[in-house]
Write a structure and sequence with these properties.
The complex is a heterodimer of chains A (114) and B (862).
Chain A lengths: L8 H13 L3 E2 H11 L8 H13 L3 E7 L5 E7 L1 H31 L2
Helix pairs in contact in A: 1-3, 1-4
Chain B lengths: L2 H6 L1 H25 L4 H12 L2 H11 L3 H19 L1 H29 L10 E8 L9 E2 H10 L3 E9 L2 E4 L6 E3 L2 E3 L3 H5 L5 E2 L14 E4 L1 H8 L9 E4 L2 E8 L12 E4 L14 E9 L5 H18 L1 H4 L2 E7 L7 H32 L1 H9 L4 H37 L15 H27 L11 H35 L7 E7 L8 H16 L4 E7 L9 E6 L12 E9 L1 H4 L6 E2 L13 E5 H7 L9 E5 L10 E9 L13 E5 L6 E8 L3 H15 L4 E2 L3 E2 H8 L1 H35 L1 H9 L4 H34 L11 H14 L1 H8 L6 H6 L2
Parallel strand pairs in B: 6-11, 8-10, 17-22, 19-21
Antiparallel strand pairs in B: 1-12, 1-13, 2-12, 3-6, 3-12, 4-5, 4-9, 7-10, 8-11, 9-10, 14-23, 14-24, 14-25, 15-17, 15-23, 16-17, 16-20, 18-21, 19-22, 20-21
Helix pairs in contact in B: 2-3, 5-14, 6-12, 6-14, 6-15, 6-22, 7-10, 12-15, 12-16, 12-22, 14-15, 16-22, 16-24, 16-25, 17-20, 22-24, 22-26, 24-25, 24-26
The chains are: A alpha+beta (114), B alpha+beta (862).
Chain lengths: 114, 862
């Protein structure tokens, strides 16, 4: 099963922030990295990636600058701002609580089942 | 968020977006080629991954959060283009709105100036203190000196209580001539209470305000500039004030003329006879500043307690006297009149808005096809409604800019119209922040009124819908016309009242009379006999000036107000609770009626023995004679006058009527007032001099000054005023307010008529095709015209009926300001009907165009 662009917005934002947190990265590499880390489960369409990046940039969670990339051409690199880091921590904690709760509920149902 | 940067760097952001996406795409192509795909295939795959390039860009732009601004800018540009194109709609609409906004701005500036009070710290914490009788009625408004001292000593709610009294003074003895200036006596704390400090020298201190203290005075900035050429060494110099050498100790700041237009102040203790005044001589005006944390209610309770203590302590003078606090200085003009005028301008604005909304509605109908196309192409209704809202917004903004100009011009016009009237110094026709906020609010309301209605119509509109019914339009027109007719009725009543006074005043030949006050130095003319001699001498010398026809003295000039007294008929007892009719009284000396160009209607002029107490004579005016002796000969009847202060209700003066004069009013009240003339007994050292002459006032004034100085150069004359200025000036209330109401009503009528015309004309244009079909099918052109006339007649007829009812209503509201005019004045009501009839032209002419529609041409239009 592959998540497409119908992934909830907050989730996509969190994934992007998490990947960018590892270090300065441009859009193409970001897409590749997400694909790689999620073992191809998460294929993010550029159609949703770039608007999400721009939205995060304009919210001040990401900082952007133009720098020469590994191919030598200038690319737009994103990195986490202090605000973005705090936001990511908050979101991660929330996600962890949520998934724990869901796991508990799902586990309980399995146990109750005859 | 940094919207502004993003807006400004829009092009750069677009370039960056483009570069970023291209980088991504090309990296994708390279990677696919590395996987062994041909370049063409790699490009195809990369493009597929990417989705719609333009869609992504749009989404990125949306993510910027500035999208709506660009859309708005686009809407504004589009709206501006459309409005410029439809200038036959835009220009009248904008002017109608601008007039509405402008007169609201002007009127609010005037009202604001009249009610905002003094420009001191926390003016709302200043309260005036008045005396009143036990029944709660106002009685004279003033407070006696001893009562004032008690209030000052015992108050707990007020931080400070001050008293003042206005009185002219004669300045001399400083080498700058003899001059009469308007002045006041103030308690030493008055300026401190107001928060004003002298610009030069010092304020009064308590020691200055003691009986026997060395006389000190403070100058107003105006007097200091005019008499002393703004010489700062004037402080410490001596000037003779009513003959008493006094030291100048300070100069007050520019523009400060407390309480009304004083240019000169002395301590209250200098007021002649003050220390001898009993509690029944109520001569002082009192103002207090509330202490921290006190409220008006507490202040009222406080003065009530003090007043009832005084009533117990001094029953002979204070038994029926209470005290009442009121905002200081109170409203200058009657609140009701200001409310009527504010309502009038608001109605005119609403009429303007209704009109423009109607035109916009009609116009949005005319654009049915454009809107249908846009809706079919996927525009949301909200998007279209927004476009219309932006259109009306742009229109209102343009109108607001124009309206502010109109408003400023209106204020200039108003201050020109009232330039000759003496207003208290704190009334300045300035446009302050309150006016700005009000005008902004008015524009906002206008924008909402205009924009929302058509936009809401369109939001519910569907492409297949028939053009909307004219019912809403007709209802709006009816409201608009009704309001206008009611305004016109109000204006008509005010104008009728003004004309009634104008006609009554016209019997006095005021153009050839000048008036000035003469004051004899009190220290030199001690007895009535000495004063009478001086007046006689002055009259004799002035009469001898070539060109002077006659000379007279009077306690007040005609039309100039003056005291009023209660009148009773001798021998007719009245109960003490009964309120007696009040009449004006004037004491006269010399050829008073001749000087006004009048002849007594009956009886004779005063002779010497009329002034004697035992054989006193009086002349009454025709109005008084008609009121009190409708069926008797007034000559020989005895009348008695008592001061309005009921505490010493002893019949003061009874006199036999010896003559009846034509009616010349003193007051400017609801009716042309009854006046009693008594012979002057030279009780006062100050009288008004009236001189009748064909010589121009300036030359005459020089000649008179020469003669007066020849009699005694200690006699002060104030500026010479032509009597017609006094007469015109006294009518300013009706002239200015009636004029404003008339102007507002006419503007309203114009707006309404233009609206009626435009709506009818538009309906005809709108239905040209339908008319063509009807005519082609054999309809008579008269029938077609009638169809459109009927559409306009309905609102007009309804408005005429409602307008007549409203006219009666506004007559009731204005009744207090009407002079010899009935609230249901037939002439005014007839004028309403006539105007409604004339407005019919606004329906008839456009409707007639329907008859000229050529069926062939109309059908070929398609």
């Amino acid at each position: 099963m592959a998540f497409k662009s119908d992934m909830p917005q907050g989730t996509l934002d969190m994934v992007i922030l998490q990947v960018v947190a590892a270090g300065r990265i441009h859009g193409y590499a970001l897409a590749q990295r997400i694909k790689l880390i999620s073992r191809d489960l998460l294929q993010i369409q550029q159609g949703s990636l770039y608007p999400a990046l721009h939205r995060l940039e304009h919210r001040g969670l990401l900082l952007a600058e133009w720098k020469p990339s590994e191919t030598g051409r200038d690319a737009k690199f994103y990195r986490l701002s202090a605000k973005g880091r705090a936001h990511l921590q908050g979101e991660t904690a929330k996600w962890a609580r949520l998934s724990e709760a869901i796991a508990l509920i799902l586990g309980a149902r399995e146990k109750d089942a005859p | 968020v940094n919207w502004w940067r993003r807006l400004r760097n829009r092009d750069q952001l677009e370039r960056e977006l483009d570069a970023e996406l291209r980088y991504h795409f090309e990296r994708g192509v390279v990677d696919y080629m590395r996987m062994g795909l041909s370049e063409a295939e790699a490009r195809r795959r990369a493009r597929l991954d990417f989705g719609g390039d333009d869609q992504v860009k749009e989404d990125c732009r949306d993510a910027r959060g500035t999208r709506w601004i660009h859309d708005l800018a686009q809407d504004v540009r589009f709206a501006a283009r459309l409005l410029v194109k439809d200038r036959w709609f835009t220009v009248p609409a904008a002017i109608a709105l601008a007039l509405g906004i402008g007169i609201n701005g002007t009127m609010f500036t005037v009202v604001n100036a009249m009610v905002r009070g003094l420009s001191v710290d926390h003016p709302e914490r200043l309260l005036s203190l008045h005396a009143r009788d036990g029944a709660g009625r106002w009685r004279g408004h003033r407070v006696s000196y001893l009562d004032f001292l008690d209030f000052q000593a015992s108050t707990r709610a007020f931080a400070e209580v001050a008293a003042f009294s206005q009185s002219g003074v004669t300045l001399a003895g400083d080498g700058r001539g003899t001059e009469r200036v308007s002045a006041s006596y103030v308690s030493a704390n008055a300026f401190r209470l107001l928060g004003e400090t002298p610009r030069l020298g010092r304020d009064f201190v308590a020691a200055d305000d003691q009986p026997g203290a060395p006389p000190v005075v403070i100058l107003g900035s105006r007097l200091w500039t005019m008499r002393y050429d703004a010489d700062s060494t004037v402080v410490g110099r001596t000037v003779r004030v009513n003959g008493v050498p006094s030291t100048v100790i300070g100069v007050m700041p520019d523009g400060f003329r407390f309480p009304v237009v004083s240019d000169f102040w002395q301590p209250l203790a200098r007021m002649p006879g003050l220390s001898d005044q009993g509690r029944d001589i109520r001569a002082l005006q009192v103002v207090g500043r509330l202490g921290d944390g006190s409220t008006t209610a507490q202040a009222q309770a406080d003065v009530d307690a003090i007043a009832s203590r005084l009533a117990r302590q001094y029953p002979s003078t204070n038994a029926n006297t209470g005290a009442v606090v009121a905002p200081f200085p109170g409203n200058f003009a009657p609140v009701r009149m200001l409310l009527v005028l504010m309502t009038a301008v608001a109605l005119v604005l609403v009429a303007g808005c209704v009109n423009v909304a109607n035109l916009l509605l009609a116009r949005s109908l005319g654009r049915s096809r454009e809107l249908a196309v846009r809706v079919s192409l996927g525009a949301t209704r909200w998007r279209i409604a927004r476009q219309l809202l932006v259109e009306s917004g742009v229109l209102v903004l343009a109108a607001a800019a124009l309206g502010v100009l109109f408003g400023v011009a209106g204020v200039a016009l108003f201050s020109r119209a009232v330039a000759g009237i003496t207003f208290p110094y704190y009334i300045q026709w300035t446009i302050d922040w309150r006016v700005g906020a009000f005008v902004a609010a008015v524009c906002l309301v206008a924008g909402v009124l205009i924009g929302v209605l058509p936009a809401a119509r369109v939001a519910r509109w569907r492409p297949a819908m028939r053009p909307m019914s004219g019912r809403l339009t007709a209802a709006l027109l009816t409201v608009e016309l009704t309001m206008t007719l009611v305004l016109l009725a109000g204006a008509g009543l005010m104008v009728r009242s003004f004309l009634a006074v104008y006609r009554a005043d016209a019997i006095v030949d005021a153009a050839h009379v000048v008036a000035m006050s003469v004051s004899l130095p009190a220290e030199k003319y001690l007895t009535a006999g000495q004063r009478a001699n001086a007046y006689a001498l002055l009259a004799e010398r002035i009469d001898a000036i070539p060109g002077v026809a006659s000379t007279a003295f009077a306690s007040v000039v005609p039309f100039g107000g003056g005291p009023s007294q209660q009148l009773s008929l001798d021998g007719q007892p009245h109960s003490s609770g009964e309120s007696l009719p009040t009449v004006s009284y004037v004491s006269i000396r010399g050829a008073y009626f001749e000087s006004l160009g009048l002849r007594l209607l009956r009886g004779r002029a005063f002779v010497e023995h009329d002034a004697a107490a035992e054989s006193a004579g009086a002349i009454v005016n025709q109005r008084l004679a008609a009121m009190f002796f409708p069926d008797r000969d007034p000559i020989g009847q005895r009348i008695c006058l008592t001061p309005p202060d009921a505490s010493n209700r002893t019949p003061a003066a009874c006199a036999a009527i010896v003559g009846v004069s034509p009616t010349v009013r003193q007051q400017y009240l609801q009716e042309i007032d009854p006046v009693v003339y008594l012979p002057d007994r030279a009780d006062s050292a100050e009288l008004m001099l009236l001189v009748r002459s064909d010589t121009p006032p300036s030359a005459l004034s020089r000649a008179i000054r020469g003669e007066v100085a020849a009699v005694d150069d200690g006699i002060a004359l104030n500026a010479v005023v032509p009597l017609d200025e006094v007469m015109t000036g006294s009518r300013w209330g009706h002239r200015v307010f009636g004029g404003m109401l008339t102007a507002f009503a006419i503007i309203g009528l114009l707006i309404a008529v233009v609206g009626l015309y435009a709506v009818t004309a538009f309906a005809v244009v709108q239905r040209t095709k339908e008319i063509g079909v009807r005519v082609a099918l054999g309809a008579h052109s008269a029938g077609v015209v009638w169809f459109f006339i009927r559409g306009g007649m309905l609102p007009l007829g309804a408005a005429a009926c409602l307008g007549l009812a409203g006219a009666w209503g506004i007559g009731r509201i204005l009744q207090r300001f009407l002079i010899q005019t009935s609230p249901a004045d037939p002439a005014v009501l007839a004028a309403i009907v006539v105007l409604a009839g004339v407005s019919f032209a606004a329906v008839f002419f456009p409707a007639r165009r329907a008859a000229r529609v050529d069926p062939i041409a109309a059908l070929r239009c398609e």
